[in-house]
Design brief:
Elements: E1 2-4, E2 10-17, H1 21-34, H2 39-42, E3 49-54, H3 64-67, H4 75-90, H5 107-113, E4 123-127, E5 134-138, H6 140-146, H7 148-155, E6 164-167, H8 172-184, H9 194-203, H10 207-219, H11 226-236, H12 239-251, H13 253-258, H14 267-275, H15 283-300, H16 307-314, H17 328-333, H18 343-354, E7 374-377, E8 379-383, E9 395-402, E10 406-414, E11 421-431, E12 434-445, E13 451-462, E14 468-475, E15 482-486, E16 489-492, E17 495-501, E18 518-522
Parallel strand pairs: 4-6
Antiparallel strand pairs: 1-2, 2-3, 4-5, 7-18, 8-15, 9-14, 9-17, 10-13, 10-18, 11-12, 11-14, 16-17
Helix pairs in contact: 6-7, 8-9, 9-10, 11-12, 15-16
Length: 523
């Protein structure tokens, strides 16, 4: 039999020699005459003889996955395959169908069938804290191939021959995610279990899964979870993730400090945030966030949330809050009436504001440096004419993309070309039609061709390699300056910004000319 591939090229030649029944009888008679075989052996059929001749093939050997691309099994086997996949999730212990191996063409797929499967399992794990445990099957060989810790546990010099291993410090869902990676070579992460999965990957030294967890956390990083992730990144010794967390906390400090996650951080992380020089927030916001943390910490320590206990759990961290740098109104209406300060501290801080000879304070009295905003100017010149640029409720809009994560704080806008004037500006930032930030404010222009900043309430996080839409609707003096000789790409420090026209623009603004000459951002 000549075996050929789909293109008609020779692959292998198989020759089969079959013994017919009559030949078997004749051979049996000959053997009986010669006395070379017993009666029992003459009754048996002779073995089928075959020979495989491999033809020369200069092509590189292919793996099973290359020869058999992944595709849906035939209709007759679809139900069985789905049962096996469902069994992996439910741990039903048995595989009813025989020859299940024939359903999967690659070793990877056959190996995946063993995931969370009691078939041939030679070890079991009782995972989770008391009261929330789950018993999961495992196969020592597969686990040892995927983790050096499992290899030492099962085959090392100090290996213990246990049929059941208890793991109380790992969540069952996280342990299953790690097993799925080891068995199936698949990474299945979820926002509510990714930190626990990272812990499991670190504990059992599965570096590629750990790296995937860190990447997942970096892409889902926001002001809401930055403080918690900062605490965890220090615990897991992930410096890259730590740096990304600080970038978000610095730029969106007020959002981060007001988030629920801030109250969940440990004391060491609290101190590091309160010490931060580049924290871009009002000090009254820092003060209120520290009091909120203290209240939750009292609950964790099973203390009544009194003023005395709040001060007790804050300890020396209280003096890291730069109360003397607050605006006087913020101090008088906030910190001074909070009760957290002693009477002497309150008096000394009031004297610090008003007296020529200032008293010594335990609090840090030097303002934070904050962040210096960068400006990306997209026009090479500007002009004005007697019939433009006019504003009648129409929208000026432009699209942009960056190559690094930045935080848009606001836009720089042109003002009146006919002397000083006040404008009302509604600014908006969207991504794929979804509003990420907007604000309605006023700015005063002095009649020059300078740009005038208009700010969002909070900086908006911008991810790289995605186009966003910046828009503004102006109301005020109808004639203003406008930009000319626009650039499609601008290098601003270490950030490259690309511009393109927006379909939302109904007042004439585009890449070559118009309004929104500047993007103001932190990077």
């Amino acid at each position: 039999i000549l075996m050929v591939d789909e293109k008609g090229k020779n692959m292998k030649c198989l020759t089969f020699f079959l013994m017919l029944p009559e030949t078997v009888k004749n051979r049996s008679k000959k053997n009986s005459k010669k006395g070379n075989s017993s009666s029992s052996s003459s009754s048996k059929l002779p073995p089928v003889c075959y020979e495989i001749i491999t033809l020369k093939n200069k092509k590189k050997k292919k793996m099973a996955a290359d020869i058999f691309p992944r595709k849906k099994p035939a209709n007759t086997n679809t139900t069985a395959v789905q049962q096996y996949h469902q069994q992996n999730l439910n741990n039903n212990n048995t595989i009813p169908a025989p020859n299940w191996q024939g359903l999967y063409p690659t070793i990877r797929e056959r190996n995946a069938v063993m995931f969370n499967n009691d078939l041939m399992a030679d070890v079991h794990f009782v995972v989770g804290p008391p009261g929330g445990t789950q018993r999961l099957p495992g196969h020592k060989y597969v686990l040892a191939v995927g983790s050096s810790v499992f290899h030492a546990m099962f085959y090392g010099e100090l290996a213990e021959d246990k049929d059941e291993i208890r793991i109380p410090d790992v969540e069952p869902a996280a342990f299953l995610a790690m097993l799925k990676y080891i068995y199936c070579d698949e990474i299945d992460l979820a926002a509510d279990t990714v930190l626990a999965t990272l812990y499991a990957a670190k504990k059992y030294i599965v570096p590629h899964l750990a790296r995937a967890c860190v990447n997942f956390l970096e892409t889902s990083l926001s002001a809401k979870n930055a403080c918690v992730l900062l605490s965890q990144s220090c615990l897991f010794e992930e410096p890259d993730l730590t740096q990304r967390c600080w970038e978000v906390i610095d730029a969106q400090a007020e959002l981060a400090l007001k988030s629920e996650g801030f109250c969940d951080i440990d004391f060491q992380t609290l101190e590091s945030i309160l010490r931060r020089e580049t924290l871009n927030a009002k000090e009254i916001v820092v003060f209120e966030a520290a009091l909120n943390w203290a209240e939750v910490e009292c609950q964790r320590q099973e203390l009544t949330a009194t003023i005395e206990n709040k001060r007790k759990v804050l300890g020396k961290a209280l003096y890291l809050i730069r109360i003397p740098t607050m605006a006087l109104d913020d101090f008088a209406n906030g910190a001074a009436q909070s009760g957290i300060l002693t009477l002497n501290e309150t008096n000394d801080i009031f004297l610090w504001y008003t007296a020529a000879k200032k008293p010594e304070l335990q609090f840090v009295s030097k303002p934070r440096k904050g962040l210096v905003p960068q400006r990306c100017h997209r026009f090479q010149s500007c002009a004005y004419r007697s019939n433009q640029w006019r504003y009648r409720g129409r929208c000026d809009s432009i699209q942009f993309a960056v190559d690094k994560r930045v935080f848009i704080a606001g836009f720089g806008l042109y003002g009146s070309s006919c002397g000083s004037a006040e404008y009302s500006a509604k600014i908006e930032l969207k991504r794929q039609g979804v509003i990420l930030g907007q604000n309605l404010s006023k700015y005063f222009s002095d009649g020059s061709s300078n740009t005038f900043p208009v700010w969002f309430e909070y900086p908006v996080q911008i991810e790289p390699d995605t186009f966003y839409t910046a828009s503004v609707i102006l109301d005020g003096n109808e004639l203003s300056y406008f930009g000319q000789e626009g650039m499609t790409e601008v290098q601003c420090g270490k950030v490259t910004v690309q511009f393109q026209c927006s379909s939302d623009s109904t007042n004439g603004t585009g890449v070559q000319g118009g309004q929104i000459p500047e993007l103001i951002f932190y990077a």
